[in-house]
# Entry
Amino acid sequence: MKLSNTTEYALRILSFMAMDEKLLYTANDLFDKLQIPYRYLRKQLNFLLKQGLLVSVQGKTGGYQIAKSLNEISLMDIIEATDDTKFENMCFFGFSECPLTQKCSMHERWGEVRNSTLSLLKTTTLNDIKNENNLTNLSLK
# Structure
């Protein structure tokens, strides 16, 4: 599965912000930590605001914050908000849609992998990402 840069950056931004969802993050904070090109980062933040995934707080101590509970935002929600790829019909060989008239040798096997991946993306939330990261960080200390 090939995700767009926009989607990859959105996943990075929201996963990072999920580590402490109560904090307000400035664009400068996110730029320093995530090394996303600054102008692109600003566009991403505005886009995520419009999609309802972030809220912004204006003022000297303002910034961005995740708009919903971490349990309410799945990885698929983020992908669907930022990418127009149709994963349900994604072909192993790169066709935009599977040519159903003649199924390729990978059709059935790829279908299982694709469906498993879609299920994982739909059921994995930012809260899961946060908890997995915290467990990893604890084991490193």
